[in-house]
């Protein structure tokens, strides 16, 4: 374990990429992007991780040049073959953990399904940034929505309990605290400042690229799938009627 490192441990569609990029605007932070995700991993040639030994070897390589990892996981064990490796990474990789979730589960799982269709994950993908507004969406898979609405919060609660019992320095963070539609830029900036304080850093450091941080936190840029996008999905109002609730959240309320 690298005691002075940080792990951002996040379910999909929780704002983890923008959070990582904003934190990396501090010159003392070098957080790498999903090194164990074969699709977007930022450590070239890391290779498949199929057991504890391979995971530990991968961490040793990562810590040579980085002091943080952004890791996205799901309840089925992805990006590994088993959830035990996600748990090992959570509890044995870094001395500080940012545990990132999202309060509005319905928006989270619907947004995840839309990214499967568009392959568009954030607004910083260059010339393809208009893709969500032009894409012809298909009907959503209701069985997969139902599964994620049940499995994701259960898995998150289990990992949260284990993390809080571990004694690791932990910062619990919800997407809505930083990227919620009711949060203006000043509020978002202030919440990011608290995350930096948890990491022993300051937003007031003269070396911080504040202009870049404001770009990443801009309410007009931070969110990929808005209500405008949801309305382009066939049958989306029926999806909200069927799956929306005060517990799971709503798409249009």
Helix content: 40-55%
Gyration radius, rounded:
18 Å
Distance between the termini: 43 Å
CATH architecture: 3-Layer(aba) Sandwich
The CATH class is: Alpha Beta
Q: Roughly what fraction of the amino acids lie in strands? A: 5-15%
Strands, count: 5
The secondary-structure class comes to alpha/beta
SSE ordering: EHEHEHEHHHEHHHHHH
Strand order of the largest sheet: 2-3-1-4-5
The overall number of domains is 1
Mean pLDDT: 91
| CATH topology category name | Rossmann fold
What is the molecular shape?
globular
How would you sum up this structure, described in words?
The chain is of the alpha/beta class and 253 residues long. It has a single domain, classed as P-loop containing nucleotide triphosphate hydrolases (Rossmann fold, 3-Layer(aba) Sandwich). Helix content is 47%, strand content 12%. It is built from twelve helices and five strands. The chain has helices at residues 16-23, 52-65, 83-92, 105-118, 131-134, 142-166, 175-179, 185-198, 210-217, 219-222, 227-230, 236-243, and strands at residues 2-10, 31-33, 68-72, 94-101, 169-174. Strands 2-3-1-4-5 form a five-stranded parallel beta sheet, sandwiched between helices. The protein starts with a strand and ends in a 10-residue tail after the last helix.
């Amino acid at each position: 374990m690298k005691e002075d490192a940080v792990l951002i441990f996040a379910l999909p569609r929780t704002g983890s990429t923008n959070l990582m990029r904003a934190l990396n605007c501090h010159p003392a932070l070098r957080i790498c992007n999903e090194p164990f995700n074969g699709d977007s991993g930022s450590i070239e040639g890391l290779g498949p991780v199929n057991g504890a030994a391979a995971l530990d070897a991968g961490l040793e390589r990562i810590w040579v040049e980085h002091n943080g990892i952004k890791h996205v996981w799901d309840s089925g064990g992805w990006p590994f073959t088993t959830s035990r490796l996600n748990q090992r990474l959570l509890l044995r990789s870094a001395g500080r953990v940012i545990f990132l979730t999202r309060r509005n589960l319905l928006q989270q799982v619907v947004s995840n399904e839309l990214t499967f269709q568009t392959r568009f994950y954030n607004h910083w993908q260059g010339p393809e940034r208009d893709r969500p507004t032009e894409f012809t969406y298909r009907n959503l898979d209701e069985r997969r929505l139902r599964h994620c609405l049940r499995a994701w919060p259960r898995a998150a609660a289990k990992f949260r309990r284990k993390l809080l019992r571990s004694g690791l320095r932990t910062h619990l963070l919800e997407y809505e605290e930083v990227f919620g539609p009711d949060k203006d830029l000043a509020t978002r900036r202030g919440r990011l400042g608290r995350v930096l304080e948890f990491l022993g850093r300051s937003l007031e450091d003269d070396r911080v690229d504040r202009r870049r941080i404001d770009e990443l936190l801009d309410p007009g840029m931070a969110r990929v799938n808005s209500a405008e996008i949801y309305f382009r999905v066939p049958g989306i109002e029926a999806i909200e009627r069927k799956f929306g609730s005060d517990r799971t959240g709503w798409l249009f309320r």
